[in-house]
Amino acid sequence: MTSGRQRALQYLELCKPRVVSLIVFTAIVGMFLAVPGFPPLVQLLAGTVGIALSAASAAAINHLLDQRIDAVMARTRDRPLPKGQLNVRQVLTFALVLGVASMLVLVLWVNLLTAILTFVSLIGYAVIYTVWLKRATPQNIVIGGAAGAAPPVLGWTAITGHVDPHALLLFLIIFVWTPPHFWALAIYRRDDYRAVDIPMLPVTHGRRFTRWHIFYYTVLLVIVTTLPYLTGMSGLLYLAGVTVLNGGFLWYAMRMLRSNDEQLPMQAFGYSVTYLMVLFVFLLADHYLVPLAASAV
């Protein structure tokens, strides 16, 4: 018999907590960057809860729609649905409850624009990417990355009620970061994707081709991540930090071109997660610490 704690952990796994944590973190940073001071507390808290619930709902729908391939892939075969720990009705109910709760929170305590954009992002990832793009083209993660890049924009609109060009710049950073991030994982897990006929780039075009694409996108990422400084959104603190981060990403991208080490793509994948989190920390630190230091002088 399954205990209450075990059942709770199974439902938590449906939410993909690591992915949702990164989504929520970038959304929160977007909220803080949207204003010079501290964001309004109600919008900050309600926006965080609403975006988190939506991300968790999308993750649960992804589990539901991918249960057949999850049962085959080594990385996912221990998820609650393939193992029979939860059934389709339970997962569908859970996803719907989270999704409805998300929309209610955002409409009632944040604003309608954020609710609409959050719903579009949910559908973009949970349905358009999972059902169609993932199986339709090797460029699936490039096109589908738009949904994953939305959280800073959602956070920004939660506070201001409108979409700002600087919010779109944050979107662009995550959008360009997504392909090299995910393709590194796809190289390592290429046999899994081949087994379930998912046309990930390493499966359709090979590892060498994918490594070159990771390198190209990493170079593009270096350019895009300097834009906050060039547009006056951020200052020298951010520029110094992101330059170091970009050096590390380029180092991994170039190493993958020269080495067939099977563990290297996973190391690059792990670095890419740290990269994005620390980059947003630098954005936040530059936003608050530099003006604070200037005022102290």
Overview of the structural elements:
With 297 residues, this protein is an all-alpha fold. The chain contains 15 helices and no strands. The longest helix has 33 residues, at 264-296.
Percent helix, as a range, is over 70%
Element-level helix/strand string: HHHHHHHHHHHHHHH
Shape: globular
Number of E strands: 0
Describe this structure in a few short sentences.
The protein has 15 helices and no strands.
Could you outline the blueprint of secondary structure elements for this entry?
Layout: H1 4-14, H2 17-33, H3 41-65, H4 67-70, H5 88-109, H6 112-136, H7 140-148, H8 151-160, H9 165-188, H10 190-195, H11 201-205, H12 207-224, H13 227-230, H14 236-258, H15 264-296
Helix pairs in contact: 2-3, 2-8, 2-15, 3-5, 3-6, 3-8, 5-6, 6-7, 6-8, 7-9, 8-9, 9-12, 9-15, 12-14, 14-15
List keywords for this structure.
single chain; 297 residues; mainly alpha
